[in-house]
Amino acid sequence: MVRGRFSSPEGEEFEREFMEHPGAVGIIAVDGSSRVTLVRQFRGPMGRTVLEMPAGTCDVAGEEPLATARRELAEEVGLEAQRFEELAALPVSPGVSDQLTRVYLATGLSSCAPGREGPEERAMTLEVVPIDEVPAMVAAGELMDAVTLAGIALAREALARRA
Q1: Phi/psi-derived region of residue 138, left when phi > 0, alpha when psi is between -120 and 50, beta in every other case
Q2: What phi and psi values does residue 156 have, to the nearest 5 degrees?
Q3: Which residues contact 17 (CB under 8 A, 6 or more apart)?
Q4: Is 4 exposed, middle or buried (0-12, 13-18, 19+ CB in 10 A)?
Q5: Tell me: the pLDDT tens digits for 10-62?
Q6: Burial tier of 39 (Cβ tally within 10 Å: 0-12, 13-18, 19+)
Q7: HSE on the CB side for 93, CA within 13 Å?
Q8: Alpha carbons 96 and 1: distance in angstroms, whole number
Q9: What is the average per-residue pLDDT within 112-126?
Q10: Which domains does the chain have, with CATH numbers?
Q11: Helix H or strand E segment including 47
C-alpha cells in the first residue's frame, strides 16, 4: 500500500492509501463454436474458488501486454490464438488500486502444452461454456468476476460486429 495525495474536482486536497499495481491482462478465448474458456481457481483473498477468464499480471520486465496475454493463455489453459483484439483497459477496483486489466478477445484457437505455475494455477480447472449461457451463469451466482463479465459482454459485441 502507498499513500497518495490528490485533488478533488473542486480543488480540495486529500490523502488516500491505495495499492500500486503493474497492470494485468485478461483473455476472453472464444472457439469456433462460440464457447468461452474460463478457469476456476482458488483466490486466497476471497477464500474460495472463482470462475474467471484466464489472466495474469504484467510482471515480466519489458514484456508488452499482448505478449503477456499470449503467454498467459498458453500457460493457464493450453491455448494459442491466431487473432487477438484488445477490447478495453478496465479498472479492477478504482477506489483502492490503480490496477488496469487489458482485456483481449482471442479467436482462431488451437491447443498447446500448458505451463501452469504456482499453487493457484496448478489446482485450477477449465470450463468451456457456450457464451450465450453466461447470463444464466451470472443469475445463478456461478460467475461473478466483474472484469470477466465486462470482457465477455465486450467480446459478444465484437463478435456480433464481425458477423
Answers
A1: alpha
A2: -60, -40
A3: 1, 2, 3, 4
A4: exposed
A5: 999 988 887 888 999 999 999 999 999 999 998 888 889 999 999 999 999 99
A6: buried
A7: 8
A8: 9
A9: 85
A10: 21-162 (3.90.79.10)
A11: none
User: Rounded to an integer, what distance in angstroms lies between the CA atom of residue 115 and that of residue 75?
Assistant: 4
Q: Is residue 147 a contact partner of residue 38, using CB atoms and an 8 Å limit?
A: no
For the chain, what is the mean pLDDT?
Answer: 93
Asked if 54 and 80 touch (Cβ cutoff 8 Å), the reply is no
Alpha-carbon distance of 113 to 103, in angstroms, equals: 23
- Type and span of the H or E element at 48: strand 48-52
The pTM (predicted TM-score) of the whole model is 0.91
The span from the CA of 139 to the CA of 144, in Å, is 9
Please tell me the distance from the alpha carbon of residue 37 to that of residue 9, in angstroms, as a whole number. Answer: 41
pLDDT given at position 67: 98
What percentage of the chain reaches a pLDDT higher than 90? 72
Single-letter amino acid, residue 92:
V
Residue 19 has which C-alpha cell? 495499492
Catalytic residues: 121
